[in-house]
Amino acid sequence: xxxxxxxxxxxxxxxxxxxxxLEGVHKSFGRLEVLxxxxxxxxxxxxxxxxGSSGSGKSTLLRCVNLLExxxxxxxxxxxxxxxxxxxxxDSVRRRIGIVFQSFNLFPHMTVLRNVTLAPRKVLGLPAAxxxxxxxxxxxxxxxxxxxxxxPDRLSGGQQxxxxxxxxxxxxxxLLLLDEIxxxxxxxxxxxxxxxxxxxxxxxxxxxxATHEMGFAREIASRVCFLDGGLVLEQxxxxxxxxxPQEERTRQFLKRIVDAGRx
Amino acid sequence: xxxxxxxxVVALTALVLAAAAGAAGARxxxxxxxxxxxxxxxxxxxxxxxxxxxxxxxPWFGGGELKGSKWKIDDPATGQGYESAVAYExxxxxxxxxxxxxxxxxxFSQSFAPGRKKFDLFVNQVSYSPVRAKNxxxxxxxYDVAQAVVALKGKPIAKAAGVAALKAxxxxxxxxxxxxxxxxxxxxxxxxPGVYDTLNDGVTALKNGQIDGLVVDLxxxxxxxxxxxxxxxxxxxxxxxxxxxxxxxxxxxxGSAVTACVDRALAAMRADGTLKKLVGTWLAKSAGAPILx
Amino acid sequence: xxxxxxxxxxxxxxxxRAFFDGHEFTSSLPEISRAFLTxxxxxxxxxxxxxxxxxxxxxxxxxxxxxxxxxxxxxxxxADIFRGIPTILVIYILGFGAPALQLSWLPTSxxxxxxxxxxxIYSAYVSEVYRAGIDSVHPSQDAAARSLGLSRSQSMRHxxxxxxxxxxVPPLLNDFIGLQKDTALIALLGTVEAFRQSQIDVxxxxxxxxxxxxxxxxxxxxxxxxxxxxxxxxxxxxxxxSAGALG
Lengths: 263, 293, 247
Ligand SMILES: Nc1ncnc2c1ncn2[C@@H]1O[C@H](COP(=O)(O)OP(=O)(O)OP(=O)(O)O)[C@@H](O)[C@H]1O
Ligand SMILES: [Mg+2]
Known about the structure:
The structure holds 3 protein chains of 3 kinds. Chain A is of the alpha/beta class. Chain A has helices spanning 3-10, 58-65, 90-96, 112-122, 128-141, 157-169, 187-202, 214-220, 238-243, 248-259; strands at 18-29, 32-43, 47-51, 73-78, 81-82, 97-100, 175-179, 207-210, 223-228, 231-236. Chain B binds chain C through residues 1, 3, 108-109, 112-115, 129, 131-132, 134-136, 172, 175-177, 180-181, 192-197, 201-202, 204-205, 207-211, and chain C through 11, 14-15, 17-19, 96, 99-100, 102, 108-110, 187-192, 196, 199-200, 202-208.
């Protein structure tokens, strides 16, 4: 709809190299208009953090990108391909985009290894041995090698969330969406998960994170976007957003965070 | 043991007979000492309660369905049909007028359930057997019966000329009947028998081709071919099960004081030709089927 | 206490003779057991079909979106109708009605029609059980599977159904015990199975003990079935809670 505005607002040219580009994305649940024209571009290897108060639409935005929610208006491009047009193969889009949820959503009836190998085998059609090898390598890399035959019930929250990340990575996604992946974790487990994200960022993974961990956002983000009223109200480098926010609403939000001792 | 396929008894004929005989007739018919109706342990004082199954089928019962009556197909209280006529005659000889006979619906399986009986007599083509007689009283025979095979015209089974020729066919019978034993003990066919809750289900199975032949007692066989199916035929009568002449008896509670009195009444009816006459009136058409050896 | 009251009741001797006659029991048991094989056969065949048909109906009912509305509506109609009609009527209508059409390609076998009737009825019940199971799997499980690129049917097959089925094993078993007992209804069509055989014996002797023999046979097969299900559930639980035992 207002696609060109979006590009201008993001302050960068709409290059095909953008890993992700949203143009005027609208989304309502019944009468509730959650997204009212989101414009956002994410370059390859960029790490973008979405912040905003609860209910501001961060999760909804990520779910729309992954086509878990259909959007009402606007356009979404992933690596130069529009994914919101008619006749798009939803499954093949999702194959290229990994998403990790706040509540892990591991499959409780499968072992860790089967959780991780399910999609490579069923979706990519890898032979079992090849899928196992690929996934075991990932499990080793993220310190989960000894858990491969465990069922999720028996894992700690941090371990479960790391498995969920590995499960997404096993599909070798070009874009990773992370939705408050630490907010269901006990504080002492948060760091083990954040370490994983750090490592991924260092490896050049393009990521969009919704998070309440402002300290972490400041450390890892190439860009921070503040969502408010269904729009990207303000965005910029972490230094700029956290030290010198331009918008009154952003200041209020950050003040509340500081008062709550989370920054 | 023919059971209940077919139920009750009595009717206009009995009415007419009773009217003709008059009050005096009823008295002379009363059976000897100890059988005075005032002294008998009856379900309802002063009344003879007779049970049979519903619906009541011809030729055992007659008179058709009466408006406002609970009885289907035929109504035992009309006095028409063989069993109804016999029941009223027995009642008369025990000193009960027509108005003192009460008909009650009693399913076959209830007739021998343990506990107090809800009837004084049960008449429903029940065949006597020594094993059954351990659990209920049977009266003397009021009808000597044979089993017969009913089939559809033009089917291979209709040409069977002997018992051995029936072995290849799927046969059916109503449950609780000697007809069933005639299949398993006399014919011994290769296919297992079909066994039905009611005569109607058996007839339906025959019409549907689910069985080739239906085994029932001979009078019932005549009724089925005459009234229930268009293209039915009686293949023939079967030899008696175990070589014993099969006979229908009235069913009474085990050790009932009424049994001896009923037996005396039936003996008198046999001696003076009454039974023969009733057979002539109601079952005359049920004779003359070929006998299968 | 109850036993004392029963044993001292005035009708007890007659009841004992009618229902607990040792001789009748031993003489009727072999034939009833043989007839019971028919019940077991009917049960096994029907159960196989019911598991598949019930699942198919449940999956049809869970298809989303307006495109699938007609299929959903059909599945709902089916479940409503066949849960509504008394089993005995369905068996009567099919068993005596279908062969009455006199179509040569339709089977006339009462066992076949009895099984068809049981499958129709119990698939309706079982589809509801499956559906409850599918609904009980949190939508986030499906979302997680879909987000990995699994198709709708792959997600159903590998993620949703395995969890749904595990959860509904106890109610499924319940329905199967009901099914096993309802195999006796095929007697209505003329088939001599255990119940009908015992009726025959009862009618021949005017003694009720054969019913007791039949009842014991039904119980004798229900108990192992129930224990087997318990064992399955326990094994599954143990497996999920123990680490690493199985690859
Ligand atoms: N499936 C849905 N149906 C109806 N309303 C929904 C649905 N999903 C989200 N919403 C509503 O949309 C709004 C935005 O929700 P969303 O989960 O995107 O917020 P959020 O920014 O992720 O919040 P939080 O920080 O608490 O996770 C909320 O008001 C929420 O109630
Ligand atoms: Mg959220």
